[in-house]
Amino acid sequence: QSALTQSRSVSGSPGQSVTISCTGTSSDVGGYNYVSWYQQHPGKAPKLMIYDVSKRPSGVPDRFSGSKSGNTASLTISGLQAEDEADYYCCSYAGSSPYVFGTGTKVSVL
Amino acid sequence: QVQLVQSGAEVKKPGASVKVSCKVSGHTLAELSMHWVRQAPGKGLEWMGGFDPEDGETIYAQKFQGRVIMTEDTSIDTAYMDLNSLRSEDTAVYYCAVVGPSLGYYYRYGLDVWGQGTTVTVSS
């Protein structure tokens, strides 16, 4: 199972919105509505930000939203804040491989 | 709430084996689907394997088949990941992770509780 494809980096000014894309295939992203997104700060464990394509776990700000169209999932961060600067990984269920991760996107706050 | 505490950093020589532990507190391990994810320096997350509750068995990523064994001692709520025939490319931070009660334990949703990570360095 190959890693899902994400853009290497994205940046925005405080208050702006940024969108991260995650492209897979019909065997993973396109085949199941089980896409999740993780935020990872340097030296820290990943944190679940979105699950089930668009649902937010308790405690995750509503600035974070997820969506999916075909084989591509997206994470949008609205009202960008300094603490949002981190690496973000998408992840999809893929049948025999329950967790296929994306290549990761570095979000920079200018 | 569910918490995962992993064993300490390890330094191993090529060809050796490493066993990383993950202690569960705040819940019973037997009710959780435990998984292992690793991250090489400067690289992304990579799922290694874990318990598939739908099949009732442990499954492994094809890349690690034959080289990794994941076990659980439910009497002490501790999971283990044993990786053998280590090579330099196995140098990474190894995480244990589960989907907890806040997500209804449904493992397809993702992993919402993570251990702090264990650094394994493979060097001659």
Question: What report would you give on this structure?
Answer:
The complex is a heterodimer of chains A (110) and B (124). Chain A has no helices and 10 strands. In chain A, β8 (86-94) and β9 (97-101) form a beta hairpin. By secondary structure, chain A is mainly beta. Chain B has 124 residues and is mainly beta. Helices cover 0% and strands 47% of the residues of chain B. Chain B contains no helices and 11 strands. Chain B has strands at residues 3-6, 10-12, 18-25, 35-39, 45-52, 57-60, 68-73, 78-83, 92-98, 113-114, 118-122. In chain B, strands 2, 4, 5, 6, 9, 10 and 11 form a 7-stranded mixed beta sheet that branches. In chain B, a hairpin with a 4-residue loop joins β7 (68-73) and β8 (78-83). The mean pLDDT of chain B is 95.
Helix residue percentage of chain A: under 10%
Number of strands of chain B: 11
- Major sheet summary line of chain A: 6 strands, mixed
Q: Structural class of the secondary elements of chain A?
A: mainly beta
Radius of gyration of chain A: 13 Å
- Approximate strand percentage of chain B: over 45%
Number of strand elements of chain A: 10
- What's the total helix number of chain A? 0
Which stretches of chain A of 5+ consecutive residues score pLDDT under 50?
Answer: none
Taken from the alpha-carbon principal axes, the silhouette of chain A is: globular
List its salient traits.
heterodimer, A: 110 residues, mainly beta, six-stranded mixed sheet, four-stranded antiparallel sheet, 10 strands, 0% helix, 48% strand, globular, B: 124 residues, seven-stranded mixed sheet
List the SSEs and their pairings.
The complex is a heterodimer of chains A (110) and B (124).
Chain A (H helix, E strand, L loop, with lengths): L4 E2 L2 E4 L5 E6 L11 E6 L6 E4 L13 E6 L2 E6 L8 E9 L2 E5 L3 E5 L1
Parallel strand pairs in A: 2-10
Antiparallel strand pairs in A: 1-3, 3-7, 4-5, 4-8, 6-7, 8-9, 8-10
Chain B lengths: L2 E4 L3 E3 L5 E8 L9 E5 L5 E8 L4 E4 L7 E6 L4 E6 L8 E7 L14 E2 L3 E5 L2
Parallel strand pairs in B: 2-11
Antiparallel strand pairs in B: 1-3, 3-8, 4-5, 4-9, 5-6, 7-8, 9-10, 9-11
